[in-house]
Amino acid sequence: DARVTQTPRHKVTEMGQEVTMRCQPILGHNTVFWYRQTMMQGLELLAYFRNRAPLDDSGMPKDRFSAEMPDATLATLKIQPSEPRDSAVYFCASGWVTGFANTGELFFGEGSRLTVL
Amino acid sequence: AQSVSQHNHHVILSEAASLELGCNYSYGGTVNLFWYVQYPGQHLQLLLKYFSGDPLVKGIKGFEAEFIKSKFSFNLRKPSVQWSDTAEYFCAVPTSGTYKYIFGTGTRLKVLA
């Protein structure tokens, strides 16, 4: 049963520390998304990759967030330094996205719940 | 820019009541639409999607949605809700010209047993 895998599931850290979240997309999917979910803002798109190339990271604070996809089986989201306002659930999703009229479904991971003290 | 809006942020229903959650999108061209559900503590999963054909789409667990192009709407319905439908529901649309998916703010449904 193919699924998106995210680690860690939970992370508690102190302000100023580096946090790295990892995502293994479903094999064969060509597009990977990072979303952040908070009570106040809902689901926000942070960044996404197509065929491992970053297409849009305008949703991320550039000074502290970075997203990479070193290979087809791994996407990472890094926060350095972390701040309390970064506390949220971070979801990775992958899908087979074919063109401008996208019909493909997104498959979400279980999420990484981050708490920054 | 394309957008999607959900009008009801919180809905409380008793079991067996009928459900309709609103979703409106801004784009007037070819559009594909999705509804996702997030059960408490879980990830989002697909309920149903529309991309062509019959505007009345049936999904899992008895949910359906109707695409009404003239109203730019894709409302989610269920004739009789169950306690297990307690969840947050998201409408989503892929943006035209990019590969992004935009999600609405979500509607939290609480079904009372």
Explain what the structure shows:
- The complex is a heterodimer of chains A (117) and B (113).
- Chain A has strands at residues 5-7, 10-13, 19-24, 31-38, 42-50, 53-56, 65-71, 74-79, 88-95, 107-108, 112-116.
- Chain A is an all-beta fold and 117 residues long.
- In chain A, the strands form 2 sheets. In chain A, strands 2, 4, 5, 6, 9, 10 and 11 form a 7-stranded mixed β-sheet that branches. Chain A has a 4-stranded antiparallel β-sheet with strand order 1-3-8-7, with no helix packed on it.
- The mean pLDDT of chain A is 92.
- Chain B has 113 residues and is mostly beta strands.
- In chain B, the strands form 3 sheets. In chain B, strands 2, 5, 6, 10, 11 and 12 form a 6-stranded mixed β-sheet that branches. In chain B, strands 3-9-8-7 form a 4-stranded antiparallel β-sheet, with no helix packed on it. Chain B has a two-stranded antiparallel ribbon with strand order 1-4.
- Helix content of chain B is 0%, strand content 50%.
- Chain B has strands at residues 4-5, 10-14, 19-21, 24-25, 33-38, 44-50, 56-58, 64-68, 73-78, 87-94, 101-103, 107-112.
- The A-B interface holds A 31, 33, 35, 42-43, 45, 48, 50, 55-56, 91, 93, 97, 100-103, 105-106, 108-111 and B 30, 32, 34, 36, 42-46, 49, 51, 90, 92, 94, 96-106.
Mean pLDDT of chain B: 91
Cα distance spanning the termini of chain B: 41 Å
How is the biggest beta sheet of chain B arranged? Answer: 6 strands, mixed
Q: Strand tally of chain A, please?
A: 11
- Count of separate DSSP helical elements of chain B: 0
How much of the polypeptide of chain B forms β-strand, as a percent range? Answer: over 45%
The biggest chain-chain interface is: A-B, 23 and 25 residues
Shape of chain A: globular
H/E element order of chain A: EEEEEEEEEEE
- Low-confidence segments of chain B: none
